[in-house]
């Protein structure tokens, strides 16, 4: 007999594969590189160049790295919209009428977003690395990709919880998305260090995604010891698990409430 965990993992894997299929059907390589990726490159170059107005080369490099990683943060945060899309399209009610782990399916449905973010950030990082002469240490550079992916997964989990909160109002999804990722870009170390802000904001930033992940990423570029990088990555993993656990609990409660009220198919 299949255990509940194994069954949930199987459902989540299939939902994830559907998400990747959606991504492939919506983009061609030429369209993605010549359109979306090019737009992201110009965005990051703009913000990094703005560093010339407030500092020297170190400020420019700091902002270049932060904004290259922020590209993936924005794409991963689209998980805010995922549950609203399912509800507004009527698929949520259909999914709830079928056997299986609905929570796993819903939470994994847009799970391709962190990988899309990793692809975008990698392309942008390679461009700004050449333009702004970013330092990249030798062997430890191989860890940049997994650290970035962990950061984007953490953002995805954060976005899921926010998406659950606004699931009954899909029309509010875009506003929630914009506010969500702008908070991360402002307070979690993209353009200025978290310690720049007043104490209470710095404290809250410690439990937000990106804060520890971007520190680990910058640490690798600066040649910090691997145990320090591992500690920061471990904190980012804990943050991701906390947001995911909260998303699971709140989503279960909302699905039960909507099923009892007969409002699963209300798009809002």
TrEMBL record:
<feature type="transmembrane region" description="Helical">
    <location>
        <begin position="36"/>
        <end position="55"/>
    </location>
</feature>
<feature type="transmembrane region" description="Helical">
    <location>
        <begin position="179"/>
        <end position="197"/>
    </location>
</feature>
<dbReference type="Pfam" id="PF01061">
    <property type="entry name" value="ABC2_membrane"/>
</dbReference>
<dbReference type="GO" id="GO:0140359">
    <property type="term" value="F:ABC-type transporter activity"/>
</dbReference>
<feature type="transmembrane region" description="Helical">
    <location>
        <begin position="62"/>
        <end position="85"/>
    </location>
</feature>
<protein>
    <submittedName>
        <fullName>ABC-2 type transport system permease protein</fullName>
    </submittedName>
</protein>
<keyword id="KW-0472">Membrane</keyword>
<feature type="domain" description="ABC-2 type transporter transmembrane">
    <location>
        <begin position="37"/>
        <end position="220"/>
    </location>
</feature>
<keyword id="KW-1133">Transmembrane helix</keyword>
<dbReference type="GO" id="GO:0016020">
    <property type="term" value="C:membrane"/>
</dbReference>
<dbReference type="InterPro" id="IPR013525">
    <property type="entry name" value="ABC2_TM"/>
</dbReference>
<feature type="transmembrane region" description="Helical">
    <location>
        <begin position="115"/>
        <end position="132"/>
    </location>
</feature>
<dbReference type="InterPro" id="IPR051784">
    <property type="entry name" value="Nod_factor_ABC_transporter"/>
</dbReference>
<keyword id="KW-0812">Transmembrane</keyword>
<feature type="transmembrane region" description="Helical">
    <location>
        <begin position="144"/>
        <end position="167"/>
    </location>
</feature>
<feature type="transmembrane region" description="Helical">
    <location>
        <begin position="228"/>
        <end position="251"/>
    </location>
</feature>
């Amino acid at each position: 007999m299949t255990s509940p965990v194994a069954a949930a993992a199987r459902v989540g894997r299939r939902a994830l594969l559907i998400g990747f299929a959606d991504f492939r059907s919506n983009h061609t390589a030429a369209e993605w590189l010549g359109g979306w990726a090019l737009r992201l490159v110009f965005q990051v170059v703009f913000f990094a160049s703005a560093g010339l107005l407030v500092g020297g080369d170190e400020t420019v490099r700091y902002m270049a790295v932060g904004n290259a990683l922020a590209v993936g943060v924005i794409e991963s945060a689209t998980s805010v919209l995922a549950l609203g899309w399912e509800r507004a399209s009527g698929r949520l009610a259909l999914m709830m009428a079928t056997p299986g782990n609905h929570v796993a399916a819903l939470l994994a449905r847009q799970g391709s977003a962190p990988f899309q973010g990793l692809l975008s950030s990698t392309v942008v990082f390679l461009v700004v690395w050449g333009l702004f002469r970013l330092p990249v240490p030798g062997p430890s550079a191989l860890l940049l990709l997994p650290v970035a992916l962990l950061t984007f997964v953490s953002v995805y989990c954060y976005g899921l919880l926010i998406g659950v909160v606004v699931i009954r109002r899909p029309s509010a999804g875009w506003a929630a998305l914009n506010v969500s990722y702008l908070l991360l870009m402002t307070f979690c170390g993209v353009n200025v260090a978290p310690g720049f802000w007043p104490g209470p904001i710095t404290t809250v930033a410690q439990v937000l995604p990106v804060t520890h992940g971007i520190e680990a990423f910058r640490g690798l570029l600066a040649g910090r010891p691997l145990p320090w990088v591992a500690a920061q990555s471990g904190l980012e993993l804990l943050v991701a698990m906390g947001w995911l656990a909260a998303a699971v609990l709140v989503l279960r409660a909302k699905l039960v409430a909507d099923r009892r009220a007969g409002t699963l198919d209300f798009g809002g």
